[in-house]
Amino acid sequence: MTAEQNFFINLPQGKTTGFCQPINSSVWKDGGDVVDLHEHCKICSVAVCMMFEDEYDETGKFKGKRYTPHKPAWK
Q1: 10 - beta bridge partners?
Q2: What percent of the chain has pLDDT over 90?
Q3: Residue 60: its pLDDT value, please?
Q4: pTM (2 d.p.)
């Protein structure tokens, strides 16, 4: 398993992009962007995310971002 697979938990194989929706938006693609997961989502620290939930171990140490299937979705 690669380090990237360890960071992105449950990420489908070959998935590199996703849709980033502003948290104050109520309409799909209302100001949203297609983002590169490895370039943008790794460094993102926004508390509300449609694509990922931060995952921690029992000691509270950050383990990675767990991918949650959502629509719309890109490869």
Answers
A1: none
A2: 37
A3: 94
A4: 0.73
Question: pLDDT: is 69 or 59 the higher one?
Answer: 59
Query: Which pLDDT score, from 0 to 100, does residue 29 have?
Result: 57
Euclidean distance between CA atoms 66 and 8, whole angstroms: 6
Cβ-defined contacts of 38-45 (< 8 Å, 24+):
38/4, 41/8, 41/65, 42/7
3-state secondary structure of 7: helix
Assign 3-class secondary structure to 47-72. CCCCCEEEEECCCCCEEEEEECCCCC
What's the first-to-final CA gap in the chain, in angstroms? 20
Q: What element of type H or E holds 6?
A: helix 3-7
Q: Residue 12 and residue 10: Cα distance in Å, rounded?
A: 6
Alpha carbons 20 and 33: distance in angstroms, whole number: 5
